[in-house]
Design goal:
36% of the residues lie in helices and 18% in strands. A hairpin with a 2-residue loop joins β7 and β8. The strands form 4 sheets. The chain has a 6-stranded antiparallel sheet with strand order 6-8-7-9-11-10. The protein has a 5-stranded antiparallel sheet with strand order 4-3-2-1-5. It is built from 12 helices and 16 strands. The chain has 417 residues and is an alpha+beta fold.
Length: 417
């Protein structure tokens, strides 16, 4: 028996997600939306046509709205579902996804005014963070309809006058709350440092703050896919990660497993963004920063396209999920995306970086300038941020190792160029 979900882009019903008897997914835009004034696609992989998009296109996109890896399995267990049942999970928690999409029962009128906010105190937050480890996204709670991609435990919340608000029944949120990873010491401090460092290096990065609920550290990251209007209403901005845009299943997000690499990413930017030349430069800057800061987990789901309200074409989204993974011996140091067919950091030389840009003197000189300027800037800013970390509240022994790695990588790229 087939099952249906209505797909909304903000408050507008745009299409129907169908699961057939063989658990295949398909997506179809509804005629009313196609005939409306200035409709926009839900993905660059699914342009505005009356045809039905089959499982090959629909499943990677909609499955990409859900958590990855072990978080997905634990969420499925909490919901009493198979971890391969993307439709079933979205049916329960798809009310507030990354971007501007929401999924609701087919044929049921959606009343977003029923969204309920609950201000939580420190004890409640501490309890929620403990619950989150066994119940990703709080998926076992029927009044919480949140879905976020990624492997790390996280929760979408709203920040209102510095108070953390738990949003129920599919209302829009403003921040992502991420506790430290239990098995890896100091990841909340590590992410606060790396994300703050990116902003100090003038990369487009969401604002982040570090805090604790009793003895549990967490970071609160401002959502780049949300906009607060002048009358204090939260507006959803649509976004999609590179795997979704390229119709690649989320479990294949790493290049070595068949996922998108740098060439695929640059090609996507060139084809679909509003300002491809500028966005290609920004992507390269992000890639260099991920390398310098030791983030080996910069895979295709950690890059995204942002669809602005006033534009018909997306732009490259700000950088997010930046963590120095290379300081943890239990994690691989191999880059998620290869640089010139190499993914072992110490073997990546200028020749490999040059292979990513056109074979022209102008393009190569610009890349060398990007590398050297960012290498110089990151060392100076990292030193200052490390000194400031006590005052900012996130000093941790792991940051000394992060700083040491940054200086080693910066020296390596300067010598290579």
């Amino acid at each position: 028996m087939s099952r249906l979900l209505d797909v909304y882009l903000r408050e507008t019903r745009v299409g129907i997600l169908k699961q057939d008897e063989d658990a295949n997914l398909s997506f179809t835009y509804v005629d009313k939306y196609l005939e409306s004034n200035a409709p926009k696609p839900v993905s660059v992989s699914m342009p505005l046509v009356a045809d039905t998009y089959d499982n090959k296109i629909a499943k990677p996109f909609f499955s990409g709205l859900l958590p990855d890896e072990s978080s997905r399995t634990r969420l499925a267990n909490a919901l009493g579902l198979s971890d391969s049942n993307s439709f079933g999970m979205l049916e329960v928690i798809g009310g507030e996804c990354a971007g501007a999409l929401a999924l609701h029962p087919h044929g049921v009128d959606v009343d977003l005014s029923k969204a309920d906010d609950e201000v939580i105190n420190e004890q409640q937050l501490f309890d929620l963070l403990a619950e989150l480890r066994g119940n990703p996204l709080l998926g076992g709670r029927r009044d919480i309809r949140l879905s976020l991609a990624g492997a790390q435990d996280k929760l979408a919340v709203k920040l209102d006058n510095d108070k953390i608000v738990l949003v129920k029944n599919g209302g829009p949120t403003t921040h992502i709350l991420k506790p430290g990873i239990k098995e890896l010491d100091g990841t909340a401090e590590n992410e606060a440092f790396c994300m703050s460092l990116a902003r100090r290096c003038n990369l487009q990065t969401p604002a982040v703050r570090f805090a604790r609920a009793k003895n549990t550290s967490y970071v609160l990251v401002e959502r780049f896919d949300r906009h607060i209007s002048k009358d204090n209403l939260v507006q959803r901005l649509h976004q999609e990660d590179f795997c979704q845009a390229l119709s690649v299943a989320p479990e294949l997000k790493y290049e070595d497993e068949g996922g998108p690499g740098v060439t695929d990413s640059l090609g996507l930017i060139q084809r679909v963004t509003n300002q491809p030349a500028a966005d290609r430069l920004r992507f390269m800057q992000m890639l260099i920063f991920h390398y310098l800061v030791g983030n080996a987990d910069a895979h295709a789901k950690n890059f995204a396209l942002l669809h602005a309200l006033d534009s018909n074409a997306p732009s490259l989204a700000p950088m997010y999920d930046v963590l120095c993974t290379s300081v943890y011996p239990q994690l691989t140091s191999k880059c998620a995306m290869r640089i010139g067919n190499r993914n072992v950091p110490d073997t990546i030389k200028l020749k490999q970086w040059m292979s990513l840009v056109p074979d022209t003197k102008a393009a190569q000189n610009l890349l060398i300038k990007q590398i050297n300027e960012l290498a110089d800037t990151i060392v100076a800013e990292a030193d200052q941020l490390y000194a400031d970390s006590v005052e900012l509240g996130f000093q941790h022994p792991v940051l000394k190792e992060v700083l040491k790695l940054i200086k080693k990588r910066a020296k390596h790229v300067r010598q290579s160029s």
